């Protein structure tokens, strides 16, 4: 199913129930002697054990053998969001997916967790098309400012890049959970355009574009994407982490609230249809009772006339 630096992910199943699951298998020989990597694995498991949200992949169990560690996770049958984006999705579909991504990240942030590697390849879909944030290998509890230079180049936030820049006049003291919001902004741009907002074959040139926030929509893209969607992208791809929109704020953005409004209206219509159906069913049942009485009139005992 997938492969990482120290692990491979395979499809498994529960012997008793037959339920499918994803099993992340880590080879202890490759990292057990490295305290930093060992701590990272332990932290990943601790975070997986803590989280419980419909838009985050569910942790099931952990088994440790002599050579391998097995982390059993929820199986997301729909695959990666990346493949959906490559094939192209509508703005309405993008809004549906992104609102769930925001809900999952908001949950993580409210529990003091920074993911630090949000990208379409780490966003999975279940069989019903629901979002599942996965791969918590770089995640950590963000009680204080973080210092590690990590993440995927095209999705990494400017403050992480600045942290690694030598000779800065006023280098940052670290970074916070806002790095996830930047990565979400890159994801949203990709969902709306099927392209990356920051791209360059030269790594340093790429980082310079990210650090400056040098992105734009082509005239064709700008004409087909709603103003609300473009505004949310701009609030997410704010190079200043202090003014960048938070997950809580983004959930209240007009573009996202429109999705909630659509979902609420859909629910109201469904409830209305169910009530109408019940009402019609009740009326039909009443008519059937009346018709039955007319077809089979009840026998009434009439008083007999008296003789004489």
Summarize this structure briefly.
The protein has 308 residues and is an alpha+beta fold. It is built from 11 helices and 10 strands.
What does this structure look like?
The chain has helices at residues 28-31, 35-50, 81-87, 91-110, 158-164, 178-193, 203-212, 219-224, 227-236, 247-250, 254-295; strands spanning 2-3, 7-13, 20-27, 59-64, 68-74, 79-80, 113-114, 123-125, 131-133, 140-141. The chain has 308 residues and is α+β, with helices and mostly antiparallel strands. The chain folds into two domains: 2-74, Phosphorylase Kinase, domain 1; 79-260, Transferase(Phosphotransferase), domain 1 (Orthogonal Bundle), CATH 1.10.510.10. The termini are far apart. The model is unreliable at 296-306 (pLDDT under 50). Keywords: ATP-binding, Kinase, Nucleotide-binding, Serine/threonine-protein kinase, Transferase. Residues 299-308 have a biased composition (Basic residues). InterPro entries: Kinase-like_dom_sf, Prot_kinase_dom, Ser/Thr_kinase_AS. This is non-specific serine/threonine protein kinase. Its EC number is 2.7.11.1.
* Total strand segments: 10
User: Number of helical segments?
Assistant: 11
Residue share in β-strands: 5-15%
The CATH topology of the largest domain is given as Transferase(Phosphotransferase), domain 1
Q: So, CATH architecture of the largest domain?
A: Orthogonal Bundle
Structural class: alpha+beta
Uncertain residue ranges: 296-306
Strand count, sense and barrel status of the largest sheet are: 5 strands, antiparallel
């Amino acid at each position: 199913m997938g492969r990482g630096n120290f692990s491979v992910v395979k499809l498994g199943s529960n012997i008793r129930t037959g339920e499918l699951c994803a099993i992340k298998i880590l080879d202890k020989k490759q990292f057990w002697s490295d305290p930093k990597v060992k701590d990272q694995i332990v932290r990943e498991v601790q975070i997986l054990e803590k989280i419980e949200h419909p838009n985050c992949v569910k942790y099931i169990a952990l088994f440790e053998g002599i050579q391998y560690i097995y982390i059993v996770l929820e199986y997301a049958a729909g695959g990666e969001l990346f493949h959906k984006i490559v094939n192209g999705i509508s703005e309405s579909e993008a809004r549906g997916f992104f609102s769930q991504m925001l809900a999952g990240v908001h949950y993580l942030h409210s529990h003091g967790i920074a993911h630090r590697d949000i990208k379409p390849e780490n966003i999975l879909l279940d069989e019903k098309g629901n979002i599942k944030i996965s791969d918590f290998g770089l995640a950590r509890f963000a009680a204080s400012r973080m210092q590690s230079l990590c993440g995927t180049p095209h999705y990494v936030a400017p403050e992480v890049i600045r942290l690694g820049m030598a000779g800065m006049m006023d280098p940052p003291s670290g970074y916070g959970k806002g790095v996830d919001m930047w990565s979400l902004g890159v994801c949203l741009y990709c969902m709306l355009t099927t392209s990356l907002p920051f791209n360059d074959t030269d790594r340093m040139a790429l980082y310079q574009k990210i650090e400056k926030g040098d992105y734009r929509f082509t005239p064709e893209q700008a004409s087909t994407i709603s103003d609300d969607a473009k505004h949310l992208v701009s609030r997410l791809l704010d190079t200043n982490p202090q003014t960048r929109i938070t997950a809580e704020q983004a959930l209240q953005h007009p573009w996202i609230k429109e999705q909630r409004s659509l979902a609420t209206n859909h629910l109201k219509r469904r409830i209305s249809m169910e009530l109408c159906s019940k009402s019609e069913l009740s009326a039909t049942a009443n008519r059937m009772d009346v018709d039955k009485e007319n077809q089979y009139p009840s026998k009434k005992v009439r008083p007999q006339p008296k003789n004489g």
